[in-house]
Amino acid sequence: MQGSQPQFLYTPEQRAKRDATRWTLVQGVLAPVQFLVFLVSLYLVLNSLRTGEHTDWALASVVVKTLVLYLIMVTGCIWEKVVYGKYLFAHAFFWEDMVSMLVMALHTAYLWVWWQGQWSAGDQLLLALAAYVTYGINAAQYIRKLRMARLQKPATQALHPSSPQVSV
Predict the structure, then answer these.
(1) pLDDT score of 156
(2) pLDDT at residue 152 above 80?
(3) Hey, how many other C-beta atoms are within 10 angstroms of the C-beta on 17?
(4) What are the pLDDT digits (tens) for 14-27?
């Protein structure tokens, strides 16, 4: 029965590629940086919507958040190509990549309306919040995958359960 077999994120070859590429470290550094930028921006956006103060800071923070998102997306595509042979939509990260496209679309839409300046600041910030909700969902997807990867035993461990387990 296929559904009862464990789902592995990496073959032994993919795990070796993941562990050997510098892009894993780049992703490992950029992900918490992006999350920190997100938290600061979210605070500024919510505070601006609540008080009407520091709106320029809030609007600019969403631009910074979007630029960091673009950076992590590009480097993530490179990582995915190195590990899985595809820039996007590798089987193991298909749904994460699908939601990432929505995240990118909403953030890009924000940049467009911010650049055009035809939406009110409040409407721009509400669009940013929509983008941030999808980002939060996407971040949770990736955290789940990271946890799955840490729990996944290497193929050699599964064949030889008495050998020491290697952490991810």
Answers:
(1) 44
(2) no
(3) 18
(4) 889 998 999 999 99
pTM for the model? 0.81
Retrieve residue 160's tokens: 């030889």
The rounded distance, in Å, linking the Cα atoms of 165 and 163 is: 6
pLDDT at 8: 76
Residues in the chain: 168
Q: Where are the domains of the chain?
A: 11-147
Q: What is the DSSP string of the chain?
A: -GGGSPP-S--HHHHHHHHH-HHHHHHHHHHHHHHHHHHHHHHHHHHHHHH--SHHHHHHHHHHHHHHHHHHHHHHHHHHHHHHS-SS--GGGHHHHHHHHHHHHHHHHHHHHHHHT-S-HHHHHHHHHHHHHHHHHHHHHHHHHHHHHHHSPPHHHHH-TTSPPPP-
